[in-house]
């Protein structure tokens, strides 16, 4: 089949972009041709035969920015002008999508979160119009929904909220839903009586990962760390829901100056840097400045991007003794499965709404907190895993075998086949 994928941005480190890359890889392995229509190709080598850049789909396009500002952040703006703009702008997008579908003889369309989350209003409407006009079978890969983002996508204007309710998530007879967790599946059924297939986020368990190599052996030196330092890694963005303050408190409670916490995320992800500044104050109050390292200038998702950021996340995991992941909320939680793939023990909070029903119930061995309550017992268990080589390795190997069973590319292929069987 010729499969067309529409996405606002591909090649970035956000969950939507990362999972889309994995879908593309597995779809190609299954023998399909994959065509991408995206507003932004970030750190991506464009293949002109298969990749088409359409700037109007970018979240940073003027049209998208104007719509978002006036729909959600400007209570004084007349809404008829906004809705008129969205409708006109969506027609431009629709026409481009339809042209692209015909030009590439697309058999199946995949909308990557663009039909679930109203982060680009005209794009969502444009996809709806294109799906209606062509009647093409369409999979909406729904990573998260508006109601899961608190008040972010609640407009002060009734007309905008009505528009969102009509367009997001996309609901047409030729549309089929892939959600990333059981909570999304249950909610879609309860709210809209729409069936869906749960397709978990996955990793490639067939390739070496988190291996020591000549290219990453200097990571400790680059971060001014000693060879006998014990490294815990927080491999997430710096945003409040990641619960990084709990990992920092853990370092203080472990009472060992050789234990260091390496935070790979960039504080630029924290809008206004309020949370980042809170973390800095906490580190200062606990007097553990020498034990917390912010490493975003050395580590990124892929590595080798430029002279400074030359270590990948795989390189980071290679040096980790264990990983911290005290998130309070996640749509899935890629960092958990990454740690499992890397064969590193993980300390985790029972984050909502996914961890227990979609991951924890598989039997992974972790130290799990409830509501990020860092008890003496939990700290003791974490300490045992950090210091006991045999226990550390046993847990890592056991979790890897479970991860391979439930969250591998083989799992993704089975789920895609299940979706295709529903469509064709």
How are the SSEs placed, and which strands pair?
Elements lengths: L1 E6 L7 H15 L3 E6 L12 E3 L8 H11 L6 H25 L4 E5 L8 H14 L3 E5 L15 H10 L7 E5 L2 H11 L3 E3 L20 H4 L7 E5 L9 H11 L4 E5 L10 H13 L5 E3 L18 H6 L3 E4 L8 H8 L4 E4 L5 H5 L7 E3 L6 H12 L1 H18 L2 H15 L1
Parallel strand pairs: 1-2, 1-4, 2-3, 4-5, 5-6, 6-7, 8-9, 8-11, 9-10, 11-12, 12-13
Helix pairs in contact: 1-15, 2-3, 3-4, 8-9
- The CATH architecture category of the largest domain equals 3-Layer(aba) Sandwich
Mean pLDDT score, rounded? 95
Tally the helices: what do you get? 15
Largest beta-sheet characterization: 7 strands, parallel
Instruction: Evaluate the radius of gyration.
Output: 22 Å
CATH topology-level name of the largest domain: Rossmann fold
Backbone structural class: alpha/beta
- The CATH class of the largest domain is identified as Alpha Beta
Can you describe this structure?
This protein is an alpha/beta fold. The chain folds into 2 domains: about 1-200 and about 410-424, 3-Layer(aba) Sandwich (Rossmann fold), CATH 3.40.50.2000; about 220-405, Rossmann fold. Helices cover about 40% and strands about 15% of the residues. It contains 15 helices and 13 strands. The chain has helices at about 15-30, 60-70, 80-105, 120-135, 160-165, 180-190, 220, 245-255, 275-285, 315-320, 335-340, 355-360, 375-385, 390-405, 410-424, and strands spanning about 1-5, 35-40, 50-55, 110, 140, 175-180, 195-200, 230-235, 260-265, 290-295, 320-325, 345-350, 365-370. The strands form 2 sheets. The chain has a 7-stranded parallel beta sheet, sandwiched between helices. Helix 1 (about 15-30) crosses helix 15 (about 410-424), helix 3 (about 80-105) crosses helix 4 and helix 8 (about 245-255) packs parallel to helix 9. The chain is globular and about 65 Å long.
